[in-house]
TrEMBL record:
<feature type="region of interest" description="Disordered">
    <location>
        <begin position="189"/>
        <end position="225"/>
    </location>
</feature>
<keyword id="KW-0677">Repeat</keyword>
<dbReference type="InterPro" id="IPR011990">
    <property type="entry name" value="TPR-like_helical_dom_sf"/>
</dbReference>
<feature type="compositionally biased region" description="Basic and acidic residues">
    <location>
        <begin position="200"/>
        <end position="225"/>
    </location>
</feature>
<dbReference type="Pfam" id="PF08238">
    <property type="entry name" value="Sel1"/>
</dbReference>
<protein>
    <recommendedName>
        <fullName>Beta-lactamase</fullName>
    </recommendedName>
</protein>
<dbReference type="InterPro" id="IPR040239">
    <property type="entry name" value="HcpB-like"/>
</dbReference>
<dbReference type="InterPro" id="IPR006597">
    <property type="entry name" value="Sel1-like"/>
</dbReference>
<comment type="similarity">
    <text>Belongs to the hcp beta-lactamase family.</text>
</comment>
Amino acid sequence: QVPTPTGDEYDLMDQLASDLPSVIDDESKQQVEDYIRSCNNGQGPMVACFSTAEYLSLFLRKHKDAAELYHNTCFRPMKDNSPNGVEVDGTKAYAPSCFNLAQMRMTGKGRTTFSRSEGYQLFDRACRAGHGGACFMQAKMLMSYPGSLGEGVPYDVPKASELLKYVCEEKDDSVSCFTLATMLLRGDKVSSEADNVSPEEARGVKELQKRVNEPSREKKSIDERTSLKRDPLFAEQLLQRGCQRGHAPSCYNLAVMYTQGDEGVEKDEAKANDYQEKTEELVKRFGGFGMGGM
């Protein structure tokens, strides 16, 4: 079971923030006053109320008040005339508000309500309203170890893969492309957390190597998690998408794929060298292996 937040984690951060001077220029101050006025205590346009909630949480540290406005703009009646609302389950939702409220529910930030099951439902609502980040978070929750996030959070790897595919292809999110590609290359012969698995190990035609200072990568019989069927060809396409968006790990995995070859993917020294150079270029540009991409 994942540890439960106490609600105190943000207290020190809020205390430090309250002791610092709030630096906001006159133009920005006027903008803040304008959207607070436009929000009209939750009666105004969704965007104005969302911006007000952001100000309350980030600048004034009034997280409970912010959560109320996020909820207000995540659940509006169908008669609401805000141009940014999207119909979800018979009501209108402003996706960024649902997403921010979901994050607060997952942590209990600022002593607001803590509920992982509600957080999951809010990520789902934000996702269906078109928020790519919410779809990714929902997918990660669906992939968590069965029961680790509580009874209200389902375990559904196939659905998670559909969400990752959607965010990769429709939202051009390189991390989603990479995450799904990794799942498709790992297969069902090794642990769901296993890294650096060769094609032969993943296919089960070669024993898993035991590496120093690394936990066993073998999938245990008591492991309740399901795995996706290996699909190197689709994984190749996903990694190419990620690499094109400047995601160094995707480029690196392509270099490895073309060096070793895989089912349906021929070895190609020229491509391997090209992607290795691309990886090194991105690492140099962003100062780290995990940077870059969208």
